[in-house]
Amino acid sequence: MAIHREPNESEKRIINEQHTREGKVRCFVNDHPIDNESEIDYHHIKPFSQRGLTEIPNLAPVCREHHKRIGTLSIIEFRARLKLEDFFNNPEPRRLDDILEIKLGSDQYGKTLKTKISSTGDKIKIIFDETGDPLELPLSTCLSTGHCFFYVILPIKYVKNDFDLQP
């Protein structure tokens, strides 16, 4: 296994210049200023273990604290981890929609499905917004409640919190 090299002083200067704003080098993880240049470490954007090259376009400055915590994660994975840690440390109640919004964006989930129940009441037709044939599934009836239900694996863009079940 190859050992990845550290950037040399000339490369560090170039990397720092590329990531400096308002006179401060910025941590690539969350863009906070690094006050003390001796606290700057360098991390691969595409991990070395995934054939990321030790070249200026693939290296970024990170503060020493983040560099210690990042471990073998990529910077993108570490950013996502920090975002989820902040999310779950918030004392407010959390719902499925909150997680979907963080992971996908506010307009990327909860899309409406078109459905049609057969005249005999024993099948449901699901019409996705993509072109293609609708999906026809059997409808079952709950013996206790009499409610009809069906099983389906949906693309995540159709998933949304049911506030009647989880207010």
Question: What does this entry show, briefly?
Answer:
InterPro entries: HNH_nuc (IPR003615). The chain has helices at 9-18, 64-70, 75-89, 96-104, and strands spanning 20-21, 24-26, 33-34, 40-44, 59-63, 114-117, 123-127, 135-138, 140-141, 148-149.
Q: Could you characterize the architecture of this molecule?
A:
It is a single chain. The chain has 167 residues and is α+β, with helices and mostly antiparallel strands. The chain has two domains: 9-78, Orthogonal Bundle (DNA Binding (I), subunit A); 92-167, no CATH class. It contains four helices and ten strands, in the order αβββββαααβββββ. The protein has helices at residues 9-18, 64-70, 75-89, 96-104; strands spanning 20-21, 24-26, 33-34, 40-44, 59-63, 114-117, 123-127, 135-138, 140-141, 148-149. It has a three-stranded antiparallel sheet with strand order 1-2-3. Strands 6-7-8 form a three-stranded antiparallel sheet, with no helix packed on it. A two-stranded antiparallel ribbon has the order 4-5. β9 (140-141) and β10 form a beta hairpin. The termini are far apart. The mean pLDDT is 88.
